[in-house]
UniProtKB/TrEMBL annotation:
It comes from the Bacteria. GO terms for molecular function: isomerase activity. It comes from Zunongwangia atlantica 22II14-10F7. Pfam families: DUF4442. Transmembrane segments: none annotated. This is Thioesterase/thiol ester dehydrase-isomerase.
């Protein structure tokens, strides 16, 4: 089953309702990139009248993790995934519509291939950049993902 933005948004509503309620939505996904949008609203704002950093983190993580999920599913083997670390930089107040885009999908293939070949866990960093409606970068997130073949117990 191919993962689509519609299926991912349904998943958000059912399994990650806080992201759904805050307005996080997948806009597009392919093998190499994923775009996730979120609009600054009352429900996701901080006291400084901009988007709360955790909402930005949810959208940014989804732009990376959706591709990891998609590529794991295509393997038809049980592989676990987990964020081990993250880093973020905020450069402008996030107001209006923000699109988080990750273009690091190619990094996933090598890590999954290695974990399937060796049985050892693999790590890799993916970057997601949040851009406002004026084309200005508001935040940049990096996530260190780990993937590992699940062992039977």
């Amino acid at each position: 089953m191919q993962i689509t933005s519609k299926k991912l948004n349904q998943f958000l509503m059912l399994k990650l309702p806080s992201a759904w309620l805050c307005g996080v939505r997948v806009k597009a996904i392919s093998d190499t990139n994923c775009s996730v949008g979120v609009k600054h609203k009352w429900i996701n704002q901080n006291p400084f009248k901009s988007m709360y950093f955790a909402v930005q983190a949810m959208a940014a993580e989804l732009s990376t993790g959706a591709m990891v999920i998609s590529k794991i599913r295509s393997q038809k083997q049980p592989i676990s995934m987990l964020v081990a670390q993250n880093k973020s930089v905020f450069t402008k107040k996030a107001t209006g519509k923000i699109i988080f885009k990750c273009e690091d999908g190619a990094l996933i293939d090598n890590a999954i291939s290695e974990t399937l070949k060796t049985g050892e866990g693999q790590t890799f960093w993916m970057k997601s950049i949040g851009i406002n409606e004026d084309g200005v970068v508001v935040s940049t997130f990096e996530f260190e993902w780990t993937v590992k073949v699940k062992t039977k117990k």
